[in-house]
Amino acid sequence: MLDQAQRILKDVFGYDSFRGRQGAIIERVASGGDALVLMPTGGGKSLCFQVPALLRSGLAVVVSPLIALMEDQVATLDELGVAAVALNSTLSADEQRLIAERIRRGEIKLLYVAPERLVQPRMLSFLQGLDVALFAIDEAHCVSQWGHDFRPEYLQLGQLAELFPTVPRIALTATADMRTREEIVQRLHLQSAERFLSSFDRPNIFYRIVPKEQPRKQLLNFLAARKGDAGIVYCLSRKKVEEVAAFLSEQGFPALPYHAGLSNELRAYHQKRFLNEEGLIMVATIAFGMGIDKPNVRFVAHLDLPKSLEAYYQETGRAGRDGLPADAWMAYGLQDVIFLKQMLNNSEGDERHKRVEQHKLDAMLALCEETRCRRQALLAYFDEELPQPCGHCDNCIDGVQTWDATEPARQALSAIYRSGQRYGVGHLVDILLGRDNDKMRAVGHQHLSVFGMGKALSEGEWRSLFRQLVARGLADVDLDGFGGLRLSASCRPLLRGEVSLELRRDLKPQQSAKASSSAASQLVRGEEREQWEALRSLRRKLAEEHSVPPYVIFPDATLLEMLRSKPSTLAEMARVSGVGARKLERYGEAFLKVLAGSAEAPRAVVDLRHELISLARAGMTPTQIANQLGCSEKNVYSLLAEAIGRQQLSLEQALDLPEELLGEIQDAFLDGEGELPSASEISEQLGGRVELGVLYCVRAALQAEFEA
């Protein structure tokens, strides 16, 4: 059976060999056994049910929680020549009837369906009348009531075991600690399932966590080396998402907001753009992400602290699904901790649930203040041991400096206690530094014994110390008051002099060895850049023609292998990983032409034009576009005028001109008889008041109107 599976893997999917435990999982499910699969994002989970679906007779039913994920997988399978459909709420009654007919006739191999639709009696009855090959339950951790992605309808999927006792079931997830795994087994009745637990490690992701000082400036520094890369920036609140998306757009980074407060239509539109366009940044709350199959997300940045290590692992795991280098970057500060603790305190749920959530938050804080290898600490949380430090996180690369903070910590705790355990860090730092201001005098704190006792440390060092005291549970946040700090029981041994305290010393940004280098920017060497852009440009053109995201044609990893192995015949192209029979037939010749340098247009220019149009449509100014694309404004105006002339852009999309000025320019062009005057002539007429590039664009718009 494995021979047959290997043949399908190569002929349909274009891969030479299975990765990790894929082969064993496929053999188990294809021969009729149940399986619980824990595999990191990007590990190739979908092949674990798609290959058995093609090996077994009948219809494979895939339970998926998100429409976007279903549509993405169906589009990918369609490109491979596999008959797959999704049944979801976007379809009309007629379309649904048509799909049902095709299923009855045996024309469909994989059916993607949401859990709430699958458990409807009518749907279950329909499936009972068919030959069902297997059930695949994707994102199976949604069954856990303790998890951050809990979906109540997943609890009803246990009935599949009773209704279809002879049909194999495979439950798959990328995020499940031991407790969640047991919950999946119990609730989905998978007691007889063989468990396949792959490593949680994502070795291609570089982890960096920095103290939050000037978060926007820090984010810009991080993004500076990542222009043109697709990425996700996570924020906790909707308001912050909107503000950060607007800020990044102003700074020349094409960014879109995504949160639950936007209309369904706008969310769907932004998600589609993110999947289909290159180099977009999605600024989002956790409403965005599950089921995002875009393999070439090159970075995930957190401007706020996630609630748990499960959330952090899952969100950072959306980067680098193609196995190529990616970055996970986070800025975190004491305010994040206070905000999350307040949220937890105000949340619904019993005390037991709150204790579990508090434990998860404590584990997240421990990772932030970790002095060992970050990857070792992260994997240890998921019950996995990494014997050696990874050498691929900030702690391993930069090294961690610690210092004996025993005495300053006692002074800080004393300041909390003596000021009445009700003040925030700002006021406590002022006490320790001896700042004799109006607020201090109003409450008489200039007379405290600790006033001015901490002048040996800077304000930044004190803030770092207070943050670490809270993270380690030695001080706590007064959630009933105004978020001031108070002592916790665990600080007593320190105050009594029974223990000492080593704390992490925050590095200055310039000391951070690789703070600005981009893992992704190392993908393509300088001399390869032009051909790389040509390959991406052809991919984008084909994606538009076939109405699918570019990575569905070929992922970056496949293009990179083409670039490096330089196939010159279809037989050589067939050996490139990710090029199956169907794609070889459809696209092989076109990519060979680009690799041979005989494509009909200079692809890099085509690529630039396409990106420029996308950025203009996103509302960027010509100056911002020039910064983003790394070319002159003169070139940008020239390409904008060309796009307007071809009616790929409207004048309004390209330029934001005051109505009065636009009217004046148009009148100047239309004053004469016959042909439109040149932009240079009009520039002279207007006394050089208007940029020549603007005049090119207005002229192109008028010319297009005349020719229409």
TrEMBL record:
NCBIfam families xrefs: recQ, recQ_fam
Keyword Transmembrane among record annotations: no
Catalytic activity: Couples ATP hydrolysis with the unwinding of duplex DNA by translocating in the 3'-5' direction
Domain Helicase C-terminal: 215-364
Name used for this protein in its record: DNA helicase RecQ
Transmembrane as UniProt keyword: no
Protein family: Belongs to the helicase family. RecQ subfamily.
InterPro entries per UniProt: DEAD/DEAH_box_helicase_dom (IPR011545), DNA_helicase_ATP-dep_RecQ (IPR004589), DNA_helicase_ATP-dep_RecQ_bac (IPR006293), Helicase_ATP-bd (IPR014001), Helicase_C-like (IPR001650), Helicase_HTH (IPR029491), HRDC-like_sf (IPR010997), HRDC_dom (IPR002121)
Keywords: ATP-binding, DNA damage, DNA recombination, DNA repair, DNA-binding, Helicase, Hydrolase, Isomerase, Metal-binding, Nucleotide-binding, Zinc
Gene assigned in the entry: recQ
Cofactor: Mg(2+); Zn(2+)
GO MF annotation, one: DNA binding
Helicase ATP-binding domain boundaries: 26-194
Top EC class, one word: isomerase
GO biological process: DNA recombination; DNA repair; DNA replication; SOS response
CC per GO annotation: bacterial nucleoid; cytoplasm; replisome
EC number per UniProt: 5.6.2.4
UniProt domain HRDC: residue ranges: 525-605
